[in-house]
Amino acid sequence: MFDAANYCRGWLSGFTPTGIITMASGNLAACLKTVLAYEGGWSDNPKDPGGATMKGITLATFRRFKPGATKTQLRNIASSDVEHIYGVGFWDPIRGNDLPFGVDLATMDYGVNSGPSRAVKDLQRVVGAPADGKVGAGTLKAVILADNKATIQKLCARRLSFMQGLKIWKTFKRGWSRRVADVEAKAVAMWLAHAGMPAPSRQSELNAEANKAKDQAQAQTKGAGGAAGGGVVAGGGDAAVSAEPNWLLIAGIAAVVAVVIAVLVIKARQHKDRAAAYKAAASAV
Question: Fewer CB within 10 Å, N- or C-terminus of the chain?
């Protein structure tokens, strides 16, 4: 049986119980592969304030590295330049080489969407370090001592919560929910692989996470249905026993029920996305 606590103690000395070096040094390329799958290819929409963009890199950003670069050069940007720009802009600020495998992916992808400082602050909040947005010795120690799978999952949950507070959430919620779920599952799979867990055990753990998420989604879907039924009963009962229904009370109950239902439906959808992502990660082992 995999001993996570013993693994984390081994991390402090630089090795897992199986002798695998655990620092994520050199893991940028693997993390970037997941990030770029969501950042898209070439875009040059005149209505887009960001202007011409290739693989998430704007022309303005590219010109900071290659002064005077043209749109054609951006469109044909070399893979080495893409990795360098993401490395300097996102990997280095989160100290990706010093984070555990999987935690580096979850933090980097968050940073690409919302800025490295915000990503690091939420990582710090998850592990109980001062949230100053800078990865120092104290933050690294807290991350290393934490349960890395839980760190990844909590960080992704915080990221999604932040996204839900944005004005454009309604427009992008489906894609964002799937992206965060996919990153979470791939990050956990990455962590388990580098922890030295055998492939069959990794599959079992990832499938267990998928089933857990599926159960949560079903419970929340059922809860939404129950809340809807309860709201109808509450409103009908009030109207039935009163010669003059208290419409303000009924409206208030309906509003509360609507909010509860909306929250449960959103959470159910997110857990469905997580279940699908973990299933896919398990199949990829």
Answer: N
